[in-house]
Amino acid sequence: MAEFMELEGQDGVRMAWNVIPGTKQEASNCVVPVSAVYTPIKPFPNMPVLPYAPLRCRNCRSVLNPFSIVDFAAKIWICPFCFQRNHFPPHYASISDENLPAELFPQYTTIEYQSPGEASSIPPVFMFVVDTSIIEEEMAFLKSALSQAIGLLPDNSLVGLITFGTLVHVHELGFGTIPKTYVFKGSKDVSKEQLLEQMNFFLIKPKPPTGVIAGARDGLSSESIARFLLPASDCEFALNSILEELQKDPWPTPVDQRASRCSGTALSIAASLLGACVPGSGARILAFIGGPSTEGPGAIVSKNLSDPIRSHKDLDKDSAPHYHKAVKFYEALAKQLVHQGHVLDLFACALDQVGVAELKVAVEKTGGLVVLAESFGHSVFKDSLRRVFRSEDKDLGLSSNGIFEINCSKDIKVQGILGPCASLEKKGPLCSDTIVGQGSTSAWKMCGLDQATSLCLIFEIVKKEIPDATLQSSNNQFYFQFLTYYQHSTAEMRLRVTSLSRRWVAGPGSIQDLIAGFDQEAAAVVMARLVSFKMEIEAEFDPIRWLDKALIHMCSRFGDYQKDSPSSFSLSPRFSIFPQFMFHLRRSQFVQVFNNSPDETAYFRMILNRENVANSVVMIQPSLISYSFQSAPEPALLDVAAIAADRILLLDSYFTIVIFHGSTIAQWRKAGYHNQPEHQV
């Protein structure tokens, strides 16, 4: 496992098969697909950032990399993907064996380009969308957290504010003399054109012709935009004044009804406003929602308390009257946000469900963050909100406007990506007919991404026949290249290029090579993402049966055994933990939805779909660490035998942490030994 983690430390990639099955049939027999979990902008301390534009292949547009064949005398390089011969431009004239550019150094398989002068002129944009249909206590918690967050905003960032309950209030922060808001009916969907007209965007400049979408580039003046989006340094006082005076929604709620809450309308107005003012800017909508949407488009339940919120059983029976309509609405919103390049972050804090299951598509396709907590006073919410804006060593490294592209050898096709991205529908020879997740494309939009965002790429081997031994030994490498063009947190546009080479094997005797290159942790994570995806899109899918069949096929293919002798079965150490992972995955919250609401299940799957292998493995199989006086902290088996009187056990399941004190330790704690000077560390 150490060598796979070393590869991840160099390129941010973990592949299930590091020696790849060479034919379609071999790949099918391997059960776990040829796949990679890739973290596009994982920070590497030794990675060079080159201050010039990359050199691209004339034919396939791949970037010059250490696997390119270079003819120094003729000043030509051959692309490893399409074998096109490319001439070096004049400024590469001095290259030689002893004088290589950084992109040809064998250790720099991941490299970044920073084109001079390519920086966004628009500063970071944050649109706060705040729910006011919550109780006074929650309102106080939320106002306090928002005040702290506003204090952490970068001075040059643009800020806007929308509050909603029964009605949607768009606050005109640029009108400093008195608070001024535009009010919209929560039960009615407002189009972009209606929004702009009602908010007097066309008083200074004439309205653009019908069919033309107004925006900062053609229809709207900077004065119009500055009414609703102001630099944080200019509007901090106005924002704090509005928050101080902000009250819970004044409309009365009958005792037998839920509060009126128009979350969908508010988010739609926020998206349209940002689309008009700052299209393509990487703006973020931060939605703070404290209960279920009951009004207007995107409503998930009626106002009558006698109507329960949809459960998994209701969804299975197709008896959730609002679900499909709400999902359709948020799919349209997701499409709009992706087109504009904007991100939706969701902070859902309530004891009840708020509609995360319906909102999932909009948050995931835009690469947004999601936080689920019981209250706005909970430390999970407050700490998470601070992390979004904190710019210290451990900041999230929030980036925006990403475009992710893949190049690979001609015998490999891309089935799709499972993760926070949206297809750009760039069809071509690399696209497989089989679609998994965001497929039928070789380019994806990542409106928002951070240093931990990880994508799961699923590939298909298309080579049908086994090549002869001489060809196999001379040309036995598959090549992959991942290109991530994104706006860095410093506003610079950068291109991250990761180039990989993996050996392929086929025919008799290849099993030992496949076993040697199997990464069981990465394979478990790929299976977890796959089973979660299939459960959401396939109506009659049986996840337990699917996982069991996959495990049986894996064991029959790679295990050693004698027929009709169960005791003779053994697995290579490379596979030995994989059945254990499948055992825990079958019982995990990704597969077993019992005792979880649809919101919780959606939240768990969204986090699984964006985290790296190490964190995802902990979600599947919790880690248990034992602390005692006799030894250093050590991993313990997830078994009752790990419990002892003189031990402290720490269970980490990623979403929750449980600390267990043995009876002796508990007595010491009760006696206050840990507070005595001689026992302090």
From TrEMBL:
GO BP: COPII-coated vesicle cargo loading; intracellular protein transport
Transmembrane segments: none
Membrane topology: Peripheral membrane protein
All copies of domain Sec23/Sec24 beta-sandwich, residue ranges: 400-505
UniProt domain Sec23/Sec24 helical: residue ranges: 519-617
Cellular compartment(s): Cytoplasmic vesicle, COPII-coated vesicle membrane; Endoplasmic reticulum membrane
Positions of the Sec23/Sec24 trunk domain: 123-389
Similarity annotation: Belongs to the SEC23/SEC24 family. SEC23 subfamily.
Protein name (database record): Protein transport protein SEC23
Organism placement in taxonomy: Eukaryota, Viridiplantae, Streptophyta, Embryophyta, Tracheophyta
